[in-house]
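Notes from the pairing session

We agreed to fold both candidates in a single pass and log them together. This is the raw record for the first candidate, unedited. Please don't reformat it; downstream parsing expects exactly this layout.

Candidate A
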Amino acid sequence: MATIKDIAYLAQVSMATVSRVLNYDETLNVTPETRKRVFEAAEELNYVISSKQKKAKKKGNIGLYYSYSLEEELVDTYYLSIRVALEKKLKRMGMDYFKITKDDTKRSLPKLDGIICLGTFKKAEIELIKSFDKPSVFVDANPDEDTFDAVVINFNSATKNALNYLVDLGHEKIGFIGGIETDMFGNRFKDLRQDVFEAYLKEKGIFKEQFVKIGGYNPKDGYQILKEMLSQDEKPTALFVANDSIAIGCYKAAYELGVEIPKDLSIVGFNDVSSAQYMVPPLTTVKLYTEIMGESAVDLLLERIATKRGICKKITIHTKLIERDSATTVKK
């Protein structure tokens, strides 16, 4: 069985740091990257908190269903940030929690008081959650508003705010790099940010189909797509990208092509990951309040459990554009 010492060795931190990270010590001052290494090491080693570490009396059991893999979480820390926030809140509220997988059944699980689902899910997974017949909250998705509570981002206003910012800087040749989403039936559909982007630019009369490119939500695809986009005869003067991971790849492509950010190409990201402020130049990006998302999901679930509320609720979390140095007025 893995120990704190094993985790400390793998994560290259002290045993004290491991203990405080795993116990969500709010007074601990470490970087998000360090926390990520500790949680990654703990999961890799299948670390289980001993009964002595758990509180003697718990107030309930909450199942956590995550749609994404550990590898996906580490590429884009958006879900990691939400997960850490909601698990921290559950611990603070005295709740036990455990992971649910697609292979679980109602009979195979311990007593369950409620479920929190994080990510995007296929129909079979949603039907599995329904089969447990327990109060459930979806975070970053709203697959069935008549059955589940939900905590979501206001992508519409977030995207429009970013585009207003670029247009106010004088940009008319604005590109978009994003990914493809999948609905509960397995059908692929446009990212909502892409829908808003296209409608907004068409309304302004400045939409150009060749400036919209779709791949994965990762640095590799951001790198490859921007290289392709900048090889076209007509090039964008600004980019809005679906997450900061894509922006990281764009930075590398721009550097290799001798394109200076923001002098030659302005870039606005999405998420405001912790490393965004340390990029060169620091990335202008849309900040998502992931901690509030995680905490709101817990509050919503516990309120529904306590009140036995029959009507579903949806909480929409707003965003903020963080202006740094990766966007400027269009070059004449």
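Candidate B (folded immediately after A)
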Amino acid sequence: MKKIVLLAIAVIFTGLLTACNQEDETNKDKKDRITPVETAQAIQEDLVIEKEIYGRTQPASQTPVMVQVPGEITSLEVENGNTVDENDLIATIAGRNIYAPKAGQVAKLSADEGSVVSNSEPLAVIADLRSLSLQFNVTGDDLALLEKEETYNAVIDGEKHEAKVTSIGSLPNETGLYSIEAAMDNEDAEILPGSFAVLHVPEQKVKDAIIVPTEAIVEESGESFVYVVNNDKAAKINVTVKETQSDKTAIEGEVKKGDQVVTSGQLTLADGSKVNVVKAGNKS
């Protein structure tokens, strides 16, 4: 029985020794081979953390096309989505020509030629798309982040625009949210009503922080670290992540302003690995 126990201990010890040797060999291989990497320069500045608020675009103004005398539409010159100039012919009703009251896009036209229309409801509306209203519903906490007449970045269809807050609701609606409106230019009328809009509102600021690209951060076994390149070798440096804003992360640790941190190829590195920088960035 004693021999069996000793034999089992010997087998376990041998296995552990083999595993350690294999790990040592793996780390040695990582250090000996030359790994191509890409780097970016660590910078020191304030990192602004932004809150994203979601909403939709609407025409800044919509002008009704009214009919003075009810009657049959004998000629209809436009359809929904058409762009018209001021005084363009819209329709002929009961021998009277109906003209566009202003330039814009025809919307909410529900009648056809031969239809009989009344003078109590608009025949259509002309939406002015040269300026847009961005409409959002926000919580009370988000309301405190916004200021009337302040300009914020708005992203629509992947493009960044400037939007000025024109109205902040003082009372919540039935769902407990507050209405926010912002105005933005759309001179070329490229953005359509109903487009999805994301308003970026500063929420907090990390002052005078060391900032690296978020992709440079490696997380393993509960630790966060980056690789800094010096003399064609990668040094593994443990860091503490303070805040992350999209592609930028503020960190604490021994990384300094100007250090070249590895942003691509770091997953195959070990502390002391030889590297070949194939692409170096000037800043994060």
